[in-house]
Amino acid sequence: MNALVAASGELGLSAVLPDVTVTEEPLASTFDESPHLPLVDNFFDGDFSVKAVLPEGGDLRAFSVQLIHRYRYVLGRIFSGFSMLKDPLQVSYPKFPTRR
């Protein structure tokens, strides 16, 4: 996403989001349920059309922003630990490739 936005220049996310919809009646920009795409075991079994995923009367742009916004955090875990070396023979050095 960051690479796509960076390549979009001044438009930023506007380059990848749907255009702003202008209607006589205001569209819903918040949703009762968290926006999500179909949760299916096989991609081919799901209906990913706009009509199937967007709640009736919902703003497609707001829906898309909320889908992207779900991934604003990245969680991870890194194991680290300390080992006491009592003898120089316990040290192992990684083998680096030699240059040709």
Q: Could you characterize what this model shows?
A:
The chain has one domain. The model has no long low-confidence stretch (mean pLDDT 77). The chain starts with a helix and ends in a 31-residue tail after the last helix. 3% of the residues are buried. The protein has helices at 2-7, 50-53, 60-69. With 100 residues, it is an all-alpha fold. The radius of gyration is 24 Å and the shape is elongated.
Short description:
With 100 residues, the chain is an all-alpha fold. It has one domain. It has helices spanning 2-7, 50-53, 60-69.
What is the topological layout?
Blueprint: H1 2-7, H2 50-53, H3 60-69
- From the N-terminal CA to the C-terminal CA, the straight-line distance is 38 Å
The overall pLDDT average reads 77
Q: What are the secondary-structure elements, in order, as H or E? A: HHH
Content-based structural category: mainly alpha
Strand-residue proportion: under 5%
Which regions are unreliable across 5 or more consecutive residues at pLDDT < 50?
none
Number of helical stretches of at least 4 residues = 3
Give Rg in angstroms: 24 Å
Return the domain count: 1
Which features does this protein show?
100 residues; mainly alpha; 3 helices; elongated
